[in-house]
Amino acid sequence: MMSLKDALVDAADDARVYDVTDRAVRVVQRRRTLTRLVPVAAALLVVAGLVGVAWPLSDGGGQEPSTAADGLPRQLTLDRSAPVLPEDRGVGPAALAFAYDDGDQGRWALLAADGRQYKVDGLRVDGMSPDGRWLLVLRSEGSWVLRDLTGTARQEFAGVDTSAGASWSPDSRRLVVQTSSRSGVTYTVDLTTGARGTAPPDLPRTARVCAVRNSGELLLCPLPESSFSGLRLADGTTGRIVRDIPTTDLGLRPTETVPESFGAPILDTDDRTLFMRTHDAADPGSAVGQNTFLVGFDLETGRLTHRYPLPDDIPGAQRPANGGFEHGQPDARYVLGVHPEGPLLLHLAPSGTDPFHVGSVTIELIARDTGTLRTVTRASAPIGLIRYPG
Amino acid sequence: MDDEASFREFVSARIGRLSRVAYLLTGEHHAAEDLVQVTLIKVARHWRRVVQGGTPDAYVRRALYHEHVSSWRSRRGREVLAADPPERDIGRDESADAVRRIVLRDALARLAPGHRAVIVLRYFEDLSEAETADTLGCSVGSVKSQTHHALARLRVVAPELVELIEDSEVPA
Fold first, then answer.
1. Which DSSP state fits A141?
2. Nearest CA to CA, how far is A18 from chain B (Å)?
3. Which of A219, A349, B30, B152 has the fewest beta carbons under 10 Å from its own?
4. Any bridge partners for residue A211, and if so which?
5. Which residue of A has its CA nearest to B101?
6. How far apart, in Å, are the Cα atoms of B55 and each of A130, A352, B49, B52, B168?
7. Residue A375 is inside which H or E element, if any?
8. pLDDT in tens, A248-271
9. Nearest CA-CA distance, residue A33 and chain B, Å
């Protein structure tokens, strides 16, 4: 006689084979890519007005600033009554820019060196010159507007796509703009005269400009989605490669890599030290966010000069969800820029009461001589992202 | 072998069983496919830890059943409307097996997802009460009472299956 089990087995024969493995793998890969691009994604979410959903801020917590750093506020609080950045006059150099959740949309604001705040008309602040004088804003029609914050001069760069990038020389006299890392035009701008040129024709198409030195020399990095294979320096006028430094010559450990997700190298204020974030894969079980370092490489001597261990990018608390496990907001740090006292990190920490939300946004400074990490600025909600000049 | 290859190999050996369970739990192909996909995404995201945990089969089973119950909760309104399936339109020349299959599928569809899950776990997957409790994240006592209520409900919604239910042995 047939049993209930037999009947169930019989009924199950009507099932098809739902082989959705490829789809599942693709979804996970996309999500991982998104996670790697958190700083950019967060900015885009702000632009899209999705901060409240995707990146909500809550109660705060995190480290209180112990000491201030020159030019940075200990406490960054949104001034809701701040005026829109005027176009017909200068307001003085910027100290930093930040994104905040304005209820139904994300907005950007500028904190001037004199402490005043201005709302920025545009989708996103994409850069400021190291001296804070020049501001690069992405407009809704996909163009960049470069404006002088001490006056009214402005330039526009059309056809900007999501892989675009801009680099300033440490002395704030040069700007290199790539409207697209693959097919766009690479402009060079002399900020002392406003003269604009295009990148040297001999510049390799297999690389992108990720930094420019005071001399105009260009630092080339691999294209997005390519693995890091070393650094190349190109003449700013001819595009000729003047120095090729393979990864093996960078002084890194044999197990140390430079993941693309860690962002581009950044030039120090001295115009010769290049900071890069690395991951030491000596422990095969460690995630990319663990065993990470900020290393400094001297472009003149070709030697590794700094090695700062960074706190682990620990995944947030987990909670069971629908049978799986969801990671909370990671305790994440991103290289924000270089302050005269040392490199700056943007620290996004999970909330103490809800680890699935960002609880605090702070700026941390790494002391050059000791590598000690200290909080110098703490942002209050609804500020969710900070951009530093340089 | 890298994580992706190991994940694919694991799924490849089990996709047939996963599909059959998903179909029994949902009663229709699209929902079953969705259930398998969401489950695999959750598993793939943490595959390394799942493997390190040493019991990937149990993890996947838990993920599948929890997702089934959870996704039902999220679309509860829709399911409530569908709780009473349309009258069965059984053709005269359908075989007795086919009729029973349809009756059983409709009867399962009229059970709450928790009851459906416990029936599939106990009688299709042959899990013990303790294993079922572990999968559903509840106590053994709860499994016992859920099974009792599920069978009782089956008898009500599908009197045609009473004999089959009565004769089924309940493994301890």
1. T
2. 5
3. B30
4. A219
5. A11
6. 53, 32, 10, 8, 30
7. strand A373-379
8. 888 888 888 887 667 778 999 999
9. 12
